[in-house]
Amino acid sequence: MTAERKRHTPAQKRAQRQWGRSRGSLVAVGSGKPIVTYAIMIVTAFVSLLQLIPGFGTQVTQAFAFQAGFLYPSLNGGVFEPWRLLTALLVHGGLWHVGLNMLALWMIGRSLEPMLGRWRFLALYLLGGLGGSVAVAILAPLTATVGASGAVFALFGALLVIGLHMGANMTGLFIILGINFVIGFVPGFNIAWQAHIGGAVVGALVGFIILRTRKRGQHTWQILLLIAVALLLIAAVFLIPPMILMA
């Protein structure tokens, strides 16, 4: 057995059979190490540690948190900070919050990242996070939010679409997804369920796009469609919430 084969996990071997290069698939099995997953976890954990520093941690949270008002200078005294749509993924509302999100990221990323490839996985994570922030801006424009829940639910959504396509048993995923979704409505948890919905919808859409454009000759279409998703989300967040806030 070669060193390359030893590095493949059972999940990767199944993915290789389903998405094999012999069929011209763009969704290729990677090196065996979910580098992007680990990198996201490390960066998020580092920011979370900064949040624990008395005084300074509050400043970090306030600087990274998302609230729709930061996108509309005319409604917020000239302040315009669109990067908060994504920086909110790095800050959390406590150790349990970041712990649950990073645990879910670790559990899903180990299988999903090798299937999609690093750049597609990163695009999925960021688009899902963006979708979560956009959903909050549209459905609860006066709410300030933190956390990577939108991005994590995007992984759920994409894995659900891809898993169903591959004929995998998705019962466990349905249960986990349902529990996480219900928690968002439990009083006292203060979780933005809007981000969960937005992330899951965008993740499912991205997963569907990757499924339909996985052949080598469709590489350009895949990139263009993912860019289109990003542009639609940006257009939605800058057009819809202002009408709600000024109503």
Written account of the structure:
The protein has 247 residues and is mostly helical. The chain has one domain: Rhomboid-like fold (Up-down Bundle). Helix content is 67%, strand content 0%. It has eleven helices and no strands. Helix 3 crosses helix 4, helix 8 runs parallel beside helix 10 and helix 10 runs antiparallel to helix 11. The chain is globular, with a radius of gyration of 19 Å.
CATH superfamily: Rhomboid-like
Number of helices: 11
User: Which percent range fits the helix content?
Assistant: 55-70%
CATH topology: Rhomboid-like fold
Order of helices and strands: HHHHHHHHHHH
Number of strands: 0
Molecular shape? globular
Distance, first to last CA = 66 Å
What key attributes describe this structure?
single chain, 247 residues, mainly alpha, Rhomboid-like fold, 11 helices, globular, disordered N terminus
Task: List strands and helices in order, with pairings.
Blueprint (H helix, E strand, L loop, with lengths): L2 H4 L3 H9 L16 H17 L4 H9 L19 H4 L7 H22 L1 H22 L9 H18 L4 H13 L9 H20 L6 H27 L2
Helix pairs in contact: 3-4, 3-6, 6-7, 6-8, 7-8, 7-10, 7-11, 8-10, 10-11
